[in-house]
Amino acid sequence: MGEAAKKQEKFKYKDYLTWKDDFRWEIINGIAYCMAPSPSSLHQLISGRIFGYIFNYLIDKECLVFAAPFDVRIPLNNERDEDIENVVQPDISVICDRSKIDKRGCLGVPDMIVEILSPATKKIDLQDKYFLYEKAGVKEYWIVDPINKTVFAHILGEDKSFKKASYYTSSDKIRVSIFEDLVIDLEKIFAGIEDIEY
Question: Edge-to-edge, what's the strand order for the sheet holding 24-28?
Fold first, then answer.
């Protein structure tokens, strides 16, 4: 994900809605980033497996899960929708307040976000999005590394900051903190991926 070659310094959601090119964009703190046009096969496989776990768990429950491309507009200062300066497309978003969901995606903060690292997005996911999601109040943020077969799970503490990340490897099982009984087996998530291109 390279910084967008746009002349304007700051962008808002109203600008985002006018972009008609073939690229996918995100805006973080008003800065536009051009995303890779299509994620790798490995990225999609890992994302799909995690999404499947969560989707199956949420059948007949109030919360919903969405996979990218799915716009999440995050207002930080009660700004109007068109003036929002943070529009992201997380790989996976879990939203338990259905009033946040509209025809354009999500207006508000998801309860859980999962991002799958790729060479193009690594810095954004580890830094820019980490601080955005923490400030916005995302309850649980997973950063998944397909190459090292690891997950860093960040849980929002009572002080409204992420606790020290819990580190998991492919032999671990993770209990999703926002739910009482959802456990994801990483051995199944990362199984048989060695021959899939990153």
Answer: 2-3, 31-35, 24-28, 87-88, 72-73, 105-107, 101-102
CA gap 99, 161 in Å, rounded: 25
Whether residue 152 contacts residue 116, with contact meaning beta carbons closer than 8 Å, is answered with: no
Query: pTM of the prediction?
Result: 0.94
| C-beta of residue 1 within 8 angstroms of C-beta of residue 33 | yes
Instruction: Give pLDDT tens digits for 19-55.
Output: 987 788 999 999 999 886 688 999 999 999 999 999 9
On whether the CB atoms of residues 170 and 187 are closer than 8 A, the answer is yes
Low-confidence ranges of the chain (pLDDT < 70): 1-8, 36-37
Rounded Cα gap, residues 109 and 23, in angstroms:
24
Q: Please confirm whether the linkage preceding 69 is cis (ω < 30° from 0).
A: yes
- Signed CA dihedral, 60, 65, 66, 71: sign only: positive
The residues that bridge with 64 in the sheet, in sequence order, are 95
For the chain, the domains span 39-189
Determine the Cα–Cα distance for residues 186 and 114; give it in Å rounded to an integer: 14
Q: Judge contact between 113 and 138, C-beta under 8 A.
A: yes
Please identify, in words, the CATH class of the domain defined by 39-189.
alpha beta
